[in-house]
Write a structure and sequence with these properties.
Layout: H1 2-5, E1 19-20, E2 26-32, E3 63-64, E4 68-69, E5 75-76, E6 79-84, E7 89-95, E8 112-115, E9 121-131, E10 134-144, E11 149-152, E12 163-168, E13 174-179, E14 182-187, E15 193-195, E16 204-206, H2 211-217, E17 223-225, E18 231-238, E19 244-249, E20 257-262, E21 272-279, E22 285-286, E23 302-304, E24 314-316, E25 320-321, E26 327-334, E27 339-346, E28 352-359, E29 380-381, E30 387-392, E31 399-404, E32 409-411, E33 419-426, E34 431-436, E35 445-450, E36 468-469, E37 478-483, E38 489-495, E39 502-507, E40 512-518, H3 521-529, E41 535-542, E42 547-554, E43 563-570, H4 586-598, E44 601-606, H5 616-620, H6 629-644, E45 648-658, H7 660-671, E46 678-682, H8 693-700, H9 707-713, E47 725-731, H10 739-751, E48 757-761, H11 774-789, E49 795-796
Amino acid sequence: MDSIFVGKQYRAESFSQPRWWASGSCYTALIKSGTTGTRGVLSGNINSTTINYGGSIGINSTKIENVEKSSSGSGSVGALVWHDVSTNTTKTYVSSDLLIPPGHDTPLSVDDYALSPDKSRLLIFTNSRKVWRKKTRGDYWVLDITARDLRQLGGWNTKPSSLMFATFSPCGNKVAYVMGNNLYVQDVHTFKITALTSDGSNDIINGTFDWVYEEEFRLRKGFRWAPDSKSIAFWQMDQSGVRVVNLINNTDHLYPQLIPIPYPKAGEQNPSCRIGVVTVEGGGAIDDANAVSDNDSKVNQITWIHVPGDPRHHYIASLDWIPGSNELVFQRLNRLQNTVHVVIADTTTGKIKIVFTDRDDAWIELQSAAWYGEESSGIRFLQGGTEFLWLSERNGWKQLFLVNIKGTCTPLTPPTFDVTEVAGLDEEGGWAYYIASPEDPLRRYLYRTKLKQQSEGSDDVDSIAPQERITPADMPGTHSYRFSRDGKYAIHVYSTFSSPELTDIVRLPDHKTVNVLADNSDLRARLLKGNLPKPEFFRIPIEDGRVELDAYILHPPSLDKKKKYPVLLYVYGEPAMQVVRDMWGGRTSLWHTMLAQQGYCVVSIDNRGTPSPRGREWRKCVYRKIGIHAPADQAVATRNLLKSRPYLDSDRVAIWGWSGGGSMSLNAIFRHPDLYHTAMSVAPVPNQRVYDTIYQERYMGLPSDNVEGYRDGSPITHARNLKGNLLIVHGTGDDNCHYAGTETLINELIQHNKQFSMFSYPNRSHSISEGSNTTRHLFSLLTAFLHNNVPPNTADIEEKG
């Protein structure tokens, strides 16, 4: 346990800080000082000449690797280096002595950074604090590299850790940021601050998001610079009327503290959202951002985009500028999330036009915003600004389309397999790259297809160009790619269930490794030496063989099929996650491996409704039946598995899961009490009515028109059936799946005189990770409960006859 959750011997290294430049095949990365090595960008023949911006760190005594975190979570950095992949040239760009603020002796701890477009200035994010899921609030500094001048943004009276999402303008002369729910720009030459909004409050949020948009759409930075740097488009959220959930912090103060969170529960009032475009020039300059009051004379004029309908009954789920234009593009979803419009807006008049619409009888998946690791619209326009890439399930599989703003929609992939995501573009070569696994939904590989098809606008499968696999055939597992802007190279991450991530730079399309950035060779050797159990991937037939569910099993090392072994199922089962994957699973997977070593057979099954690339019908047959369809699939598959493998002990079957998996574990032991004898439910949602609008309504519809679905899919409805051993674990500070939901389940169990075990972690969030030793304690708790109720000893199989 200590080696998994406390020590570093099983902790995988990664390489998470590179920044591809806006053109070509160059990137920058943070390094540690005082280390040596041959991996990273320093492998091969290196030009160790440093750029004449000053600095004392020699490139030959450094190694590119992930930034180490200090106890406060900030990065300890030696230098920022630049690397040209095409020439294998590395240079020191900014050394650590340039990051020492005036009056200090040590460099800033860097949590994140960005270079100005002309690369003459460095924007540094430090002293960061968590806002819900991510550390997005902190201090920002600007370094003029040639002048060796380091200054903090925000004004002389700015409170620590109060700025968010500072971003250079395209011209590089200004930085925009959010503070106190208002939007500001600051000149990097004069450091004068201009307030762009002044109405920010607890209800009005400019340039960032409320809880539900951040959680469910993964939106955080809520503004976009215009390409000409003259204006900024931004979201404005209005939370007024959204009912508040109060979390209680009992531990950090002498008296309890309330933490109010406007949180729209399923069927309740949503926040409203609108898009504004504000000019950057013309507003009143101020000396300090804290000095801004509600004074219109100091705030620039805003053009609001005219989106029809009640803003509380639709979502604006993306925003970006179309290349080479003064127009915006965004995705507008209706509240049921079964119709999405791609909307183009004129920023001068605020008028809009719908250029494309996609619909589904169940729900629409938003286009991914993971281009080059940045927040964007998720709608990838080609350079001409008249065509964009789009993923749609309209033909039964998730296909890649090229859409023209005049309405032409051309398929780039056939309707015979799912594209899981768009990976990158090589416009010069005329290729679109994507991730898929047509033959095996457990794995992910890189493919490419021609951007221009033989018959534009045709749905004829025969007119679609052949698909080309780029990932080598001898590398089974899971692959991800972050493309350079020219599409010629990618930072490639590869892993399998039993092998940790290997990060390298590959040349495309031949997939030749140029540099290895993090190979985890020490951890890989340690795992091989330990002779750890390997997974068996297989399928379980249900419904008389008409349907097969993907599964894996970890066996004890010395499996004797003449004996019986206890079973532990790990489950999620909802549309947000697929658990049966051939990829490195980190500490949870290592814990499962440890349990297998102790004598458990650890199993995972993906029921229908999980996001496996097995077609639209597979994923969306659970619409309006969350918590109903999936537990039934899981139970039938588990019974069939027990029947087909006599060495699995049907009298010792346990199940566990977290979040949606916690809810599934409750449904399992409540709905099928004669099958599951023990359940461990971490951070569940016992009643679907108390979860948020965007997630729950996407898959279940509105509570008012799906009363039975919400009732029957909620574990609390079936709590009276409990027979076995139940452990419920929850953090009292969980802002996502609220502790109050577990309290209502406790009352229901008490009412029916059901005995159970319960453990609450004071003031911990949904991850139950805050505080010293918390994760180690949690998994010790789960292990002990499992040992006590489903002991790992074996028993002989009784002979029949």
